[in-house]
Every structure is written in structure tokens, then in C-alpha cells.
Records
---
Amino acid sequence: MKIISHITDMQRWSEARRLAGKTIAFVPTMGFLHEGHLSLVREGKKRGDVVIVSIFVNPMQFNQQADFATYPRSLEQDQLMLEEVGTDVLFYPNAPEIYPEGFQTAIEVDKVSQPLCGAFRPGHFRGVATVVAKLFNITKPHFALFGEKDFQQCVVIKRMVKDLNFDLEVLPMPTVREPDGLAMSSRNARLSPTERQTSLCLARALHRAQDLVAHGERQASSVLQAVQEIITGEGGVRIEYISLCHPETLEEVAEVSGPTLLALAVWVGDVRLIDNCVIR
Ligand code: PAF
């Protein structure tokens, strides 16, 4: 696996692959990799001739400095994992490379950035859209793979790609879960053993909602109440939001009629966890 840290080197590498007729798959990450990321790389290898993975903990998308500072990092371990799944290039820039002095441009994807996580993390999706647009221009992929655990992020990126005519395909991939149902996330490492057990209420709540709808419930308020009861039944948990909304516009719905996104953000102790499912 080649490691590239400079933007111009990365652009040159990708341009050469493109001229040779190769297709490039790209997996952007913030490191501290887990099976969820690796499944994106494996899928990327199936779809493209070469796979680039980026690791960059993007300061622009953290609205709390402490969250950025404590974001887990593990470069050596990440490198080993990426090599094992056959990554061709790790793009690993530092912050001044991405945001040099004088940097002052940002991408704002309007409506779909506002609800859900956007309502609680001001500026988060502005930071995500801006860095992802830069990474697309740097790595020049044909496909970019994102995990659906960050469902709103997928919606925001898809909108940006469409609105700004990026010449690439965004491929959202299903959430990878632990055997007991917890969605894989770099943040899970911060859970104490008790919190780890408590956090299973998220997956339980999603199942309950799917079950209710499968048995004929259509009122969003009833489904949301059942979800809330399951989560608040656990000690040490605080709900940030629970929402039933349209999976493309992210506008809240009053009734479940057609595919509907159930999205949750929950604090378990000091750890913020998100999860979601599309109820069909
Ligand atoms: O999902 C992430 O890890 C980040 O938001 C991303 C897409 C790498 C942008 O920094």
C-alpha cells in the first residue's frame, strides 16, 4: 500500500490511473477503522480497479473542540487493517495541507443539512461537505463509498454531488453491526462495559418500530412513542432526537406510508451514538 500525504502527489497518482483506463473507488474516513470501514474498502475493490482510502480527522466538522481533541486515532493499526484488505493508496494529509493559511471557501448544502444531526451540531455538515468536495477533487474517484449509519451524511453528499455536477457516483452501503446489533462506530470504543450493554437499546428500538409498522401501525406519533419508551427505559441515556422522516428530503412525516427513515441520536453517558433504519 502506497501512502501519500501531499495533494499534488495524490492528484497525479489518480490522473495517471485514469489515463490508463482504470476506475477508482474512494473511501473517505477519519481513521480508527473498524469492520464497517473495511466492508466499504472490500466493496470498493469489487467495483473499482483501485481503491483509495483517506484518513483525515477533519477539524471543520467538529462543533466542539473537545470532541475533535478526543476523537480516537490509531494510525499504525489502521495501516495494518488497510493493507490486509488490499487498499492501493492511503491518502493521509495533515491539517495545513487541507486547510492552508488563507483558506476561506465552504460548501453549504441547504435544507437536508438542517434537521436531525444538523440541528444539534451547527456547521457539522458544512464541514463535511467542504472536506468531501476537496477530497473528491484530490482523489478523482469514479465511485465514493459511505456507510449508511451516517444516513444524513449520505443524503447531504448525494445532494452536493448532484447540485455541483461532480462526475462520480455516491454508493451508500448498509450499516455493519456487532453480533448483538450495535452499529459499528469509532465512538463505541469510548463506552464502558455497562454503557456498551445499555447502548443495545438503540437497535432494540429500531426493531420495535419496524415490528409495529409490519403489524399495521401507521401513526408516526405512536411509533415514536414506542421508540422513546424503549430508550428512556434505560438509565444513563439521554435522547437528542428521534425522527421519522422522508429518506430523501429528511422532512418529518405524520404517517408511515412508503419508505420512511427512522433516525436516532442518543447520548449514552458522554458518548453520542446515532443509528437508523429505513422502514419499508
Ligand atoms: O464519515 C466520516 O468519517 C467523515 O464525516 C468523512 C466523510 C470522512 C468526512 O470527514
---
Amino acid sequence: MSTSAPEAVLDATASGRGAPRHVAVIMDGNGRWAAQRGLPRREGHRRGVEALRRTVRAAGELGIGILTIFSFSSENWSRPPSEISDLMGLLRRFIRNDLVDLHESNVKVRVIGERSTLDPSIAGLLREAEDLTRDNTGLVLVVAFNYGSRQEIARAAQRLAAEVAAGRLAPEAITAELIASRLDAPDLPDPDLIIRTSGEQRLSNFLLWQAAYSELVFVPLYWPEFDQAALEGAIAEYRRRERRFGGLAAAGAGT
Ligand code: FPP
């Protein structure tokens, strides 16, 4: 995901009045949804996968180009082993059960996050999902898995430092655009809209670099309750926002 070039800013400004091109979602509240009903947390995550299926379908129907989902964060490893195992199991089942449907729906799967430390069978499934759907031209579904934004930025810095050390790059040639070009998905535009469910109002190490000019919408529903109407509501809120990208409001420009 790149730093906005001037052309991209114009596009994104236009999209501020229309549909967002790139929507990113922090799917929060599975555990609280379950606790409220006296159910185990894993049931909340299982229902969270159903909400994810609904959201992917709705995103396609609403003409969203890119949907990024925060599936498992670098910090989620601090949860109890049984919950980590439930989440890994859900990812395995999601890819095994839904990949063919996603492929038939022309969805292109991309993955961001640190893969080198993942269980090889999980890394293999993520790779399989990307490989199978590589040539698809519909919705781009970006799965943030073992993802942390500070870690992503640190990896980009390591790559640039290695180029400097090898004598291929001068330190003063490092710009915001160059850092953006070494992030995990540099070809994708920054998110126009970031939605977080559950009422929490923070980014929790999600797309910190890419969110510089994203509109943030906080939805007071737990993730298992999220549906097309909720997505449409968040988009309606996004459309009411005025995106200025550090410039002036349209009425004030040129005066
Ligand atoms: C937040 O709820 C959600 C997660 C940590 C993971 C999101 C995972 C899913 C929606 C299901 C898995 C999908 C895939 C593809 C792996 P929480 O547990 O933090 O809820 P809480 O804050 O209420 O405890």
C-alpha cells in the first residue's frame, strides 16, 4: 500500500464522495459477543467467520475494490494456547472450505504480515490461496495474518538498511515513498475507510502507515453481528466526511 501520489490523492478525494475503493476492517468483539450469551469464546470466533463471509459478499456487491481484514495480529500470540489453536483451526477451515467459492467469485486473495515464523502448514495454505486466485480480477481480499504494523514498518526499514549497507542506496534517498514501497503490499492503495467494530476506538497496530489519511468509522456492534446493513451504514458515514489530505476544503481552495 503506497503513500498517496498526487494523482492518487485526486482519485481518493473523488472517492470520498462515492464508494470507498479500499475498506479495511478490524473485526473486534467476538469474545464479548460470546460472553454476553454465556458461550465459549471459540463460538464467538466461529460466528465471526460467518460475519466475514457476509462481509466479503457485501463488499463485492457494493463495488468495493479492496477489502483488508485483520485476522490475527502479532500481539494475538499472547492469548491462551487453546484460543490460538482455535483461531488457527478457523483459518485452516476458512481456506479449505471457502477458497473454492472465493475463487469462483473471482476474489483475489493477498496476505500481509510476517510469514517466516508461521507454522509451515499455515504458511502453505496462505500461499495456496494467493496462488490459486492470483489471476482473478474481482474483489481483492487482503488477509492480515500474524500482522503488526510496527513490525511491517521495521521490516521495510531493515530492507532499506540492507540496501544502504550494500552500497546500492544513499541514506538521503530514503523518502516516504521509498519506505512505502518496501511494505508488504506496496502496489495497493491506502485504505479510504477503516472500520472497527465493538465500539473500541483505536487502531491496535493495524495499518499505521497506510492509515495516514484514512477515514475511521467505529461501529458499536460486535463483529459476529456485522452485516451488509452495517457495512452500508459505515460507508454512508464515510461519504459524509470531507477528505482534505492536509489541503483546504473545496470551498476554501483558491480563495
Ligand atoms: C477480535 O475479537 C477478533 C480476533 C482476534 C480475530 C478475528 C477473527 C475472526 C473474525 C475469525 C477468524 C477468521 C480467520 C480468517 C482466521 P476478540 O477475540 O478480540 O473479541 P473481544 O475483544 O470481545 O475479546
